[in-house]
Design brief:
Length: 527
């Protein structure tokens, strides 16, 4: 098993730490040997059948969580995805059906396991927030969750303010309520799964803070209610020892405006209340006959006391924390993860391993220096040494090549990485005969292509005419000169005026790739 890392230190040197609700407190929280491993989660809303490369950042965060010896939790937004996060969006999202979202989730699920299974450490979990959100009624949401949120506070969030200032678009009540659902996710996971830390991109910091605040308010509500119950029970039965409490203790939990006091030690009071409830439970068992309670009353008291003990137990598990990574940007200000062909995706069906490899290989020097820290697991000395060698000889492009190798291996595996690398070398050298058909088509996707009839190959192809028709030569004379000089190749093999090009020359039964010089390519498809 690999050596455990310090999570905060690791994220800091990699440039993956932007915001933290309490860095010192989180360090202490993560290093507590009596409560290790901690459970840490990131949420992902499914908006397509794959994830774009920007989503790889929180996945890498979860991988570092596992490297640090803690338990990574993936929360897929089967519930929140039905609503849509307004963060970073200038217009309302299109609402998808439950079935569509469920289909997206199944297609995305392998991405998380592919990355996280590579790391030694506690097993990861993949949860779906539709499982706990679907059963909440509208009235329950308003009473049990909405009451903890101030509309004034919600309107101050950047994602909401930007949309409110856009008079043409505005924001619907549906998307306005998204923050409440994400906050409830954190509270639910804290209560029921023992999750104490949420991580994500910096655009999620407001939602993370909202979740942390909801947890604090729910903790305070449990402590308040249990305290009042204990005091009432003590007054009613008289013989219960409540010396650890005083009659106005519950009032001290709130400040003069009725808000939960930030300074109140909820954890200490929760421990005291559990002790008091256990004493009350024991006393009731001893006094069953003397009290002359009916079985219904005894069952009610047992359940009531038991519920408070359970609720107070999760209050005691510690503070909730939030942590974000900065959004990745290109050094020139361009949008990260976008190419001329569109977005870079995390599944081979959307973006092939070859195209994925090329994306990283084509990174600028400045971008590669930052990206190799974010998108690989190479350690700090290795990366610093690599950057040093690159600075001495940038033309060698060792930094970009290593970034492409490592990033592709993490997502698609060693074999796919080697195939992608071989394909790139084949295109450069012209030796393309060893490429499989799918890789070949991907490699030549941006090369000019024409379609022809296989019947034209009977008796051999007139290469002079072919060079002219494919714009690889401008005249008969130029075409003959290219052929006589040996500057024309078919499928990686140089040809002359005497070379016969016929159906036997086809690659994969339908392709002839013509190259003139070192860089000029044209693909012909034969049917």
């Amino acid at each position: 098993m690999s050596e455990r890392i310090d999570l905060i230190n690791e994220l800091t040197w990699r440039g993956l730490l932007k915001d933290c609700t309490d860095e010192d407190g989180l360090r202490e929280h993560l290093s507590d040997p009596d409560n290790s491993p901690r459970k840490i989660y990131a949420g992902f809303d499914p908006t397509a059948d794959s994830l774009t490369i920007g989503n790889l950042v929180p996945i890498m965060l979860l991988a570092h969580v596992k490297r640090a010896g803690h338990s990574p939790i993936v929360v897929m937004g089967g519930g929140t995805g039905l609503i849509g996060d307004p963060s970073g969006k200038s217009a309302e999202r299109q609402l998808n059906t439950v079935e569509t979202i469920a289909g997206y989730i199944e297609k995305q699920r392998p991405i998380y396991s592919t990355v996280l299974d590579q790391i030694d450490g506690p097993d990861h979990e993949i949860l779906n927030n539709h499982d706990w959100l679907k059963d909440i009624s509208y009235i329950e949401a308003l009473r049990d969750i909405g009451k903890h949120f101030s509309v004034n506070m919600m309107m101050q969030k950047e994602s909401v303010k930007e949309r409110l200032n856009n008079r043409e678009q505005g924001i619907s009540y549906t998307e306005f309520s998204y923050m409440i659902l994400q906050a409830y996710d954190f509270a639910y996971l804290y209560e029921d799964e023992g999750v104490t830390v949420q991580i994500g991109g910096s655009d999620q910091y407001g939602n993370i803070i909202a979740g942390k605040d909801l947890i604090r308010r729910k903790r305070a509500a449990v402590v308040t209610e249990s305290t009042e119950f204990i005091l009432e029970a003590g007054n009613s039965f008289g013989t219960v020892d409540i010396s650890g409490l005083n009659m106005d203790l519950s009032r001290k939990i709130k400040d003069g405006k009725g808000n939960i006091s930030e300074d109140f030690n909820l954890f200490k009071l929760a421990k005291t209340n559990i002790e008091q409830l256990e004493s009350l439970q024991e006393w009731l068992n001893e006094q069953t006959e003397a009290l002359n309670f009916t079985e219904d009353v005894r069952a009610f008291l047992r359940d009531y006391i038991g519920k408070y003990i359970v609720d107070l137990a999760w209050v005691q598990q510690g503070e909730a924390f939030g942590l974000t990574a900065p959004l990745v940007q290109k050094a020139d200000g361009g949008k990260f993860g976008k190419t001329e062909k569109g977005a870079i995706w995390l599944t081979a069906a959307r973006t092939s391993p070859y195209a994925y490899y090329q994306f990283w290989l084509n990174a600028t020097d400045e971008d590669a220096r930052g990206w190799i820290k974010v998108f690989t697991f190479l350690d700090q000395p290795t990366i610093e040494s690599l950057i040093g060698r690159h600075d001495e000889n940038p033309g060698k492009r060792e930094l970009q090549r290593t970034l492409a190798q490592e990033a592709t291996r993490i997502l698609h595996g060693q074999d796919a990485m080697e195939n992608a690398e071989a394909a790139g070398k084949a295109l450069f050298s012209g030796d393309i005969g060893s490429l499989d058909e799918a890789t070949m088509l991907e490699v030549f996707a941006s090369v000019p292509t024409t379609e022809h009839s296989k019947g034209d190959l009977a008796g051999g192809l007139d290469m002079v005419e072919m060079l002219k028709s494919t714009n690889l030569a401008s005249s008969n004379r130029e075409a003959r000169d290219f052929l006589n000089e040996g500057s024309v190749s078919i499928n990686g093999e140089k040809i002359t005026m005497d070379t016969v090009v016929d159906e036997s020359s086809l690659l994969h039964g339908s392709i002839i790739a013509i190259r003139r010089g070192k860089k000029k390519w044209h693909m012909t498809r034969w049917k």
